[in-house]
Amino acid sequence: MAYYRPPGPPPDPVLVRELTERQQQMRQQVRHEPLPGEPRLIAGCDSSFPTPDTILSVFVVLQLPTLELVEKVYSYGPVDMPYVPGFLSFREAPNVMEAFSKLKNPPDVIMVDGHGIAHPRRMGIAAHLGVLLDMPTFGVAKQKLTGRFTEPGTERGSIAPLLDNKTDEVIGQVIRSKDKVLPLFVSPGHRCDQAAATRLTLACLRGYKLPEPTRLADHWAEQFKKEVREA
Q1: 74-97: per-residue pLDDT in tens?
Q2: Coil/strand/helix, residue 185
Q3: How many Å apart are CA 44 and CA 111, to the nearest integer?
Q4: Where does the entry annotate site (Interaction with target DNA) (predicted)?
Q5: Alpha carbons within 13 A on the beta-carbon side of 207
Q6: Domain boundaries, given as residue ranges, for the chain
């Protein structure tokens, strides 16, 4: 996800407490389990903030294993919630859900441009979205949000575990998706396990740093932004 980080005063502590409680409640609903079967359709999800007050969320649906584009949709609208570090999923989720509702081809699993459980409270946007939809989701992020890792090998396909800073719990995997480029951070969201998240990420690579579902979601986001500006 591309995040707008506006300057301003510290967030309202009452709001932070409320959001923390909601995240903890949602965390109790998260399940990590193998996918029920081999997915036929995989979605890519990406959100960005064209202005401080608006959000554009995109879903693309691809066929597996060919990665042929089946469908693309977007939702563009206002953002009411202020920026609060660590709680961006609440800022994004309403518009993401609106975009998802436009799909005519429901995916079997969703790859989200963002984190799953590789989040300080284990509730990144992929986990958040999975709980809301009660669907298999996982996150593929370009930057680390929390945890520590040993740099994986420089070759495509090299993998290293992402560990919790305090407990050494494995909260994701660090994957080199292309030779000698910065790695990706892959973690399960909901109703998906790490093995499936890693396998699908690798299966969706086509020579770019980003796997095709999130790469194409980002690509179409740029096209849809032009539509929004011209409307």
Answers
A1: 999 999 888 888 899 999 999 999
A2: strand
A3: 5
A4: 83
A5: 0
A6: 42-230
At 32-64, the pLDDT tens digits run 999 999 999 999 999 999 988 899 999 999 999
Has 53 been labeled as part of a binding site?
no
61 - beta bridge partners? 43, 71
b/e map of 162-197 (b: 16 or more CB within 10 Å)? bbbeeeeeebbbbbbbbeeeebbbbbbbbbbbbebb
* Domain covering 42-230 in this structure, CATH number: 3.30.2170.10
What counts of helices (H) and strands (E) characterise the chain?
Answer: 5, 8
* 113 in a known ligand binding site: yes
Q: What is the number of other CB atoms lying within 10 angstroms of the CB of residue 208?
A: 13
Continuous H helices in the chain = 13-27, 88-100, 125-133, 194-203, 212-230
- Answer whether 46's CB lies under 8 Å from 218's CB: yes
Under the banding of pLDDT at 50, 70 and 90, the label for residue 31 is: very high
Instruction: Average the pLDDT over 94-104 and give the result.
Output: 97
Computed over every residue of the chain, the mean pLDDT equals: 93
